[in-house]
Amino acid sequence: MATVFLISTNTNVEPYPVYPIGMSVIAGTLHAAGHKVIQYDMLAAGNSLEHLRKTLTETTPQYAGISIRNVDNVDSFTSHTNKYIYKAKLIVDVLKESGIPIIAGGAGFSLLPEEILEYTGADYGIVGEGERKMVDLINRLEHGETAPRIYGKEEGISGADIPMPRWDHKLLSYYLAQSGVLNVQTKRGCEHRCAYCTYPYLEGRKMRVRPVDEVADELEMLCKYGADNIFFTDSVLNDRGGHYLLLAEEIIRRKIKISWCGFFQPGPVENDQLVLLKRSGLHAMEVGTDATSDTTLQALHKSFSFDEVMDFNEKCIRQRIPCAHFVIFGGPGETMDTVREGIVNMNLLRNCVVFPFSGIRLHEGTPLFTRAVKEGLIRPGQSLLEPFYYFSPGLDKDEMNAALIEGFKRRRDRLFPPDEGQQRINIMKKFGFRGILWDQLIKFDDQPEKKTPSQPVTDSAHAD
Q1: How far apart are CA 69 and CA 174, in angstroms?
Q2: Domain 3-151 belongs to what topology?
């Protein structure tokens, strides 16, 4: 059996460092197949190419797998060159010195597999879920058989077969010290049809849920390592089938003491459901509101109205559940009239944080990409390795951005432009706050101002 060196390339720490569960899931399936696996995280190892080179020399693997989580930061204010993929190329260059086959994968890679493979110089690529494909590819290469250069997307594995990550103890210590947040996936797939979204392409439209007892087992295991703050990474946690409610009931039944957050879609929700979620440890919600008026919500193929967003937010306030609404200005149907309406609407939302973004990062295969081609904003087959942002035709984006800055400048809980919002979060980090951080900006009407901790959190762990 082979020694496989897996690398997570992600070094982004905004809004906080994120444990590389994609790499650890692949590590688990390779280990189960009998291979020796080394998990190497560029962020935890100090983001040093020289340290990577030294570790490769010491471990002498036969294969390397490189996980590319993101292609860029989807911020039109700062995304001018693709530093994420450039860094991946530098890592591949170091790997090439050892002369071993290099296999690229991950969510970011799967969006632009041919372009990223060519640009980085990796030998093979895996699109979509890699658990079975990675094992098959290594086995073929071990037996001297030919293998496709790119393993294409195929039907995803069943929910019951989604494996638990092979959690690395050193990495757990690092991320618990750095952010205090660990990420857990309870399902794959997305049942919604948002015009810009890549989740249906990456994970399919069929919702594949993990058995709640297996998710609860994983939570209990993480708690033994000191984890008490969990982020559920599902594309949308509040699925129509109610799997998330069953999980909440299991957490309560087992008396698992965690504080958790996840991605939610606004829409019909009952007060008793919110009570149940809060009893299970729900601390806050990151809400995919996406647009700010009925006109732009419809253009993005959202299934709810802004009145439903308002109602959702008010119900969360009554249960004292902090919400962060993520919205995009400049999308299809946007005009300066809807921009002004959207600013008013966002400022009407009480006791919540809003993360506005300007423009929508285009990806081929989405309905929005097709629309952009029809509108003459982009050519069919145009390279998207460098970020390209959709702005509604006829809309002056500079005028829009100026209106957004003016409309939100007096609100500490409206984080625009995105980099200025991140600066506020970084200040909280310096004061020792850990976790999702944005919730510290919310003050419920009957709640005193939050105080900063008296002692900052110190970082005592390093995964070198």
Answers
A1: 19
A2: Rossmann fold (3.40.50)
